[in-house]
Design brief:
Blueprint lengths: L7 E5 L6 E5 L2 E7 L6 E7 L5 E9 L4 E8 L5 E8 L10 E8 L4 E8 L1 E5 L5 E9 L6 E4 L5 E5 L5 E9 L5 E4 L3 E3 L3 E7 L5 E10 L2 E8 L2 E7 L10 E10 L1
Parallel strand pairs: 1-4
Antiparallel strand pairs: 2-3, 3-8, 4-7, 5-8, 6-7, 9-14, 10-13, 11-14, 12-13, 12-18, 15-21, 16-21, 17-20, 18-21, 19-20
């Protein structure tokens, strides 16, 4: 699907537009862009002494999509880019960015290719977070490998794709989710929760025959949202799969 954007507005929002919410060692930092009808990037930074371990991004409105979730090389900040696709929209919409931040030693491993890319963590480390970006088209998968040894990022056709794996260690790391749901509506969301006293570290998601709109760690787990229509704008059959990396 061709992505269309009439422009790109770059924003870096700071307090009071940025909200901070602490949950144990993990601190959630988020920001929301102004509402307008133009492609935009919004970013947030982690508090001093912490690094990005998980990320999330979402957009509102029809015919909008996330094309990039990119952490800084030192894992102190993250930015999310979203654009309009297809015929676009004249209605105002917003993009949101979220970073889950935690103290510790974490490493960013990145790899670029076309369509499907895997970034692998060094020996002894696991992928606590998954991040990805394209050359301007929508994403179809942002997910950890089953053994948490890296990140898998996908986009359609011959799109240029970069996968980022945030690698490190945390107590009791476990991957939850991975079960697809078939839907027949234009948009759908699916959530997956951590169990017991686990807390969500990072979110992931995948769609088949659709576009990823949102991938967000929230509450006790993570939520992924997608959209799919045919050439006439009617709902089609597609599937959606959520993932969440949890820690003790």
């Amino acid at each position: 699907m061709k992505v269309m954007s009439t422009g790109l507005l770059v924003l870096s929002l700071t307090s009071p537009a940025v909200a901070h919410a602490a949950t144990g060692e993990v601190v959630a930092v988020q920001a929301v862009s102004p509402a307008d009808s133009v492609g935009k990037t919004v970013s947030v930074s982690c508090p001093s002494g912490t690094k990005v371990v998980g990320t999330g991004g979402s957009v509102t409105g029809e015919r909008t999509t996330i094309t990039r979730v990119r952490p800084s090389a030192d894992l102190t900040s993250v930015e999310v880019t979203a654009v309009e696709h297809g015929a676009g929209t004249v209605q105002p919409w917003v993009v949101k960015v979220r970073a889950n931040c935690a103290p510790g030693d974490f490493t960013l491993v990145s790899k670029s290719d076309t369509k499907t890319v895997e970034a692998s963590c060094p020996a002894g480390l696991k992928s606590v977070g998954v991040v990805g970006e394209t050359d301007g088209v929508h994403l179809t998968k942002l997910a950890p490998k089953n053994n948490l040894k890296g990140a898998v990022v996908e986009a359609p056709d011959t799109a240029s794709v970069t996968a980022h794996a945030i690698c490190g260690t945390r107590p009791g790391l476990v991957l939850r989710g991975g079960s697809p749901s078939v839907v027949m509506t234009k948009t759908a969301s699916k959530s997956v929760a951590c169990q017991g006293d686990e807390q969500p570290i990072s979110a992931g998601g995948a769609v088949a025959g659709a576009i990823i709109d949102d991938v967000v760690p929230d509450g006790s787990g993570a939520t992924v949202t997608g959209e799919a229509t045919d050439a006439q704008g009617q709902a089609i059959r597609w599937s959606i799969t959520p993932y969440v990396v949890c820690s003790q």
